[in-house]
Design goal:
The chain has 17 helices and ten strands. The protein is α/β, with parallel strands linked by helices. The radius of gyration is 24 Å and the shape is globular. The model is unreliable at 1-12 and 203-217 (pLDDT under 50). The structure holds adenosine-5'-diphosphate and magnesium ion (MG). GO terms for molecular function: ATP binding; ATP hydrolysis activity; branched-chain amino acid transmembrane transporter activity.
């Protein structure tokens, strides 16, 4: 690689890094909006007088955040650069910029109406609740537009030079997106909001989903005992004990490099175990090769999707059934896949490489389902996707569970993974350090600090 190429790769990866940070912050804000919705319905349904302290904290948070991101002259360098490259986006960008100014006025109005609730309850409820509903809706729309239009266009159109300028132009000291210290500060504020959120809201709107009973649920399906895995001389998984019961969604969370992918690959047989034992439905599979495990019903969707980019959507799906031959049954399954993922039917003749990230994730899941898994191993299905697409992927996972597929879900997106899970494990440098129900892990102080950023 020439020096220039190296610089370019570096700058591009800075662009991706910037986008990832923006998306993460959108998610955090989205959760605050979820919490506001819960508080709103609590106020309307139960005629609960709003908790003034909590609302003020939330309003402060939103205001402080948007002020920090968007008030300096260099604030919307991203908008400026994108506008220059894409004139057709300019009206939208103008509208979004106006949204920030209007948002500030709306917040002032909300503060006023909240104060009214304290002195004139219940008459003041309705104006406050209407204004609040309008506000959260507008903010959601704003995030959707940034996620759905601005970021994809920026990703496509901005050069490495643009990204370098966007990042450099920011006042990193005070920037809640790119300033390390300031991000800490905002994490602290979110923590405070949680501390004064009533228990029944589960904190930041993260209520565990109601358990869905699946056929044959509850029996031990996969049992792992004392499992170790090494790359060469370096052992990266040590003495792993875990159990997945039939019909469960079990989530595995842990920092980058903890060994999550290695664990999944050891379960699916792509990586040999150096010690320990793995039984599936009572059969010892420790030394059984990967393709045979697929036939037994253990199927993995790898990290980063890894679809075959130069093959059509259709052919990718068929490859998922390679252990099953090409029977009428496989063709019927293909039809079912298209019914489950209509977008894949629409794009069945497209090359997989032409699909968006979310569509590729669906394709990777569809391909795995073509093997008729009984235990599906998902490695970070939400990685790099926008919040709305993530919701969709998580909905699909919930559906699969209802259909009776047992799921082992690896996620860095710990909050959603644990909210969805029956049980979960936390992996730290190759060891299981915490286990419990999804609910227990969500309320575990250590998990909150380390993985939920709260
Ligand atoms: N193919 C490999 N060869 C050598 N070391 C690896 C390999 N893959 C992963 N590792 C190392 O193993 C550890 C666990 O990695 P991984 O399972 O990918 O973690 P996670 O999925 O939790 O991010 C890391 O220290 C990583 O550097
Ligand atoms: Mg991984």
């Amino acid at each position: 690689m020439s020096e220039q190429d190296t610089d370019m790769a570096l700058a591009q990866s800075r662009g991706e890094q910037a986008i990832r940070i923006i998306v993460q912050e959108h998610q955090a804000l989205w959760r605050i909006l979820d919490l506001l919705d819960l508080l709103l319905s609590d106020m309307n349904v139960n005629e609960q007088r709003p908790d003034e302290r909590l609302f003020v904290k939330i309003f402060d948070y939103i205001e402080h955040f948007s002020h920090r991101v968007h008030s300096t002259p260099t604030d919307i360098e991203l908008y400026k650069r994108l506008g220059a490259r894409s004139p057709e986006t300019v009206p939208l960008l103008d509208k979004l910029s106006r949204g920030y100014r209007v948002g500030h006025e709306r917040l002032q109005e909300l503060r006023h109406l909240l104060a009214q609730c304290m002195t004139h309850w219940p008459e003041a409820r309705e104006p406050f609740s209407h204004a609040l509903a309008r506000f959260t809706e507008a903010l959601r729309k704003h995030i959707r537009k940034e996620e759905g239009v601005v970021i994809p266009r920026a990703r496509k159109l901005l050069s490495e030079d643009d990204w370098a300028h966007i990042i450099e132009s920011r006042d990193v000291e005070n920037d809640p997106l790119f300033g390390e210290r300031v991000r800490e500060e905002f994490r602290e504020l979110r923590h405070e909001i949680i501390n004064c959120t009533p228990e029944r809201f589960g904190g930041l709107g993260l209520t565990p989903s109601a358990p869905v009973q699946a056929p044959g649920a509850g029996e031990g399906m996969l049992v792992v005992q004392g499992l170790a895995t090494a790359y060469g001389q370096i052992e990266v998984l040590h003495d792993i004990d875990l159990r997945i019961n039939r019909g469960e969604i079990v989530s595995l969370v842990g920092a980058n490099g903890a060994g999550k992918s290695t664990l999944l690959m050891t379960l699916s047989g792509l990586q040999p175990a150096t010690r320990g034992r793995l039984t599936f439905e009572g059969r010892d599979l420790t030394r059984v090769p990967a393709d045979q495990r697929v036939a037994e019903g253990i199927v993995q969707v790898p990290e980063g999707r890894q679809v075959f980019k130069d093959l059509s959507v259709h052919d990718n799906l068929l490859l998922g059934a390679y252990t099953r031959g090409r029977s009428q049954e496989v063709m019927d399954d293909l039809d079912r896949m298209y019914a489950k993922f209509p977008i894949l039917r629409q794009k069945r003749h497209n090359l997989a490489g032409e699909l968006s990230g979310g569509q590729q994730q669906m394709l990777a899941m569809g391909r795995a389902l073509m093997a008729r898994p009984r235990l599906l191993l998902l490695d970070e299905p939400s990685m790099g996707l926008a919040p709305l697409i993530i919701e969709e992927i998580f909905d699909i996972i919930r559906e699969l569970k209802k259909e009776g597929i047992t799921i082992f879900l690896v996620e860095q997106n710990a909050s959603q993974a644990l909210a969805l899970a029956d049980r979960g494990y936390v992996l730290e440098t190759g060891r299981v350090v915490i286990e419990g129900t999804g609910r227990e892990l969500l309320s575990n102080e250590k998990v909150r600090e380390a993985y939920l950023g709260m």
